[in-house]
Amino acid sequence: MTTPSRFPEPYGQGSGANLADILERVLDKGVVIAGDIRINLLDIELLTVKLRLIVASVDKAKEMGIDWWETDPALSSRARRDELTRENAELRERLARLEELALEPGRRTRAPKEAP
Amino acid sequence: MTGLRYVYAVCRPFGTPLQAELTGIGGAPPALLHHHGLVAVVSTVPEADFCEEALKAHLEDLDWLAATARAHEGVVDALTTVTTPLPLRLATVFRDDSAVRTMIEAREEHFRSLLDRLHDRVEWGVKVYVETETAESAESAEPAPSPARPASGRDYLRRRRESSHAREEQWQRAERFAHGLHERLAERAEEFRLHPAQNAALSGARGQNVLNAAYLVSRKHSEEFVELVDRTKDEAAGLRVELTGPWAAYSFTGEAAS
C-alpha cells in the first residue's frame, strides 16, 4: 500500500535501544526464510543459546513467568531433556537386566551355594 | 568482487523514497526489488563475508554480529518510517535478484497475509528494571544500626532471615508492578510477546531486568500507548520503566498467538 509521506517520529528512532534489544529481534524474530546461503540452523541455534546465556537471566525471568523458551525446542531445556531421556532409558534397561538376572531360576538359588 | 543479495525486508510498494544517505550492511545502499506487487529491500554484500563458511565464523564474532545487526536494523528502521515492513531474520542471503524473485513467488501468499495483519502497526518494547543500587543501599542500610557482631547464633539467624526477607519483598513488589503494568499495556495492544529478561552484560543497562515485553500497537493508538508507559514511570520507587521503539513488528512475524 502506498504511504504518501513519512510517518511522524515523535519518540525518536529506536530511542534507548541497546545491543541486546537489537540482537534479540534480528536474530530471534523476523520472518525466517532459507536463502541460497544455507547457514546451518543448528549453528544459529547454538549462537542463540550462547547469546541467551548472556542475555537472559533465566532464574529471574522464570520467577516472572517469562519462560516461553522452555517450550521452544531449539532453546535451553532441550539438551537437558534429551540427556534425561537418555539416562532414563539407560536406567530402565539396567533395571530390566537386573530383574531378568534375579528371576532366572537357575542363577538365583544356586549361585551362592557351593556345588555338592 | 562477487556479490550476493542480502534481503532486509519485504513490504508493499511505497511512494516515499528512502533517505538518500541510507546505507545497509558494509555501507552499501539498499535497493528496491519490485516483483508481483511486493518489494524486497536488498543490498549487495561481498560473497567473501556471506558465503556459508565465512558467515558461520562471523556469526560467532560478537563485534561483526553487532555491526551487521545494527546495519540490518538501520534499514528496517528507515523502512518503518515510510511503510510497514516485514523484517526478515538476519543474514537472509540469495545468489542474485532472480533467486529473490523466486522466493517472493513461493511465499507471496504468506507475505500478503502477514502484511495485512501488521499493516500500520508498530512494535513497542517495554522493560522494567529493579534499580540494584537502591536494592544494595537498602540492604546495607538495614543491618547498620545493629552491632557489627550478632550477640548470639539466634540473633545472627534472625538477622539473616530479615535481610533475605527484605530482598524477597522487593522482588515481590517488582513482580507485582511488572505484572500489573503488563496487564494494563496488553489491554491497549493488539498482541504482545514476553521475551526473556536481559542481562546487563550485553544490554549495558543498569539494574536487574524483570520484564522484557513487546507490544503490537497501531500507529493511531501509539501516542496513547506511549503516554500510558510514561505515566507509569514514576509509579514505583526503586523500579525503572524503559520504552523502546517504534520498531518494525519483529516480534509478531510468526503465528498470531496472544
Q: State the share of residues found in helices of chain B, binned by percent.
A: 40-55%
Q: Which structural class fits the helix and strand makeup of chain A?
A: mainly alpha
Q: Identify the CATH architecture of the largest domain in chain B.
A: 2-Layer Sandwich
Give the end-to-end Cα distance of chain B, rounded to a whole number of Å: 46 Å
**Computed structural class of chain B:** alpha+beta
Average the pLDDT over all residues of chain A and give the rounded result: 62
Radius of gyration of chain A: 27 Å
Biggest interface and its residues per chain?
A-B, 54 and 75 residues
User: What is the helix tally of chain B?
Assistant: 8
**What proportion strand of chain A?**
under 5%
Largest sheet of chain B: 5 strands, antiparallel
CATH topology of the largest domain in chain B: Alpha-Beta Plaits
Globular, elongated, flat, extended or rod-shaped: what is the shape of chain B? Answer: elongated
Please provide the count of β strands of chain A.
Answer: 0
| Topology of chain B as a string of helices (H) and strands (E) | EEEHHHEEHEHHEHEHE
| Helix proportion range of chain A | 40-55%
Assign an overall shape of chain A.
Answer: elongated
User: Any idea of the CATH class of the largest domain in chain B?
Assistant: Alpha Beta
Model regions low in confidence, pLDDT < 50 over at least 5 residues of chain A: 1-5, 8-15, 56-61, 63-79, 108-116
How far apart lie the N and C ends of chain A?
Answer: 97 Å
Radius of gyration of chain B, in angstroms, nearest whole number: 24 Å
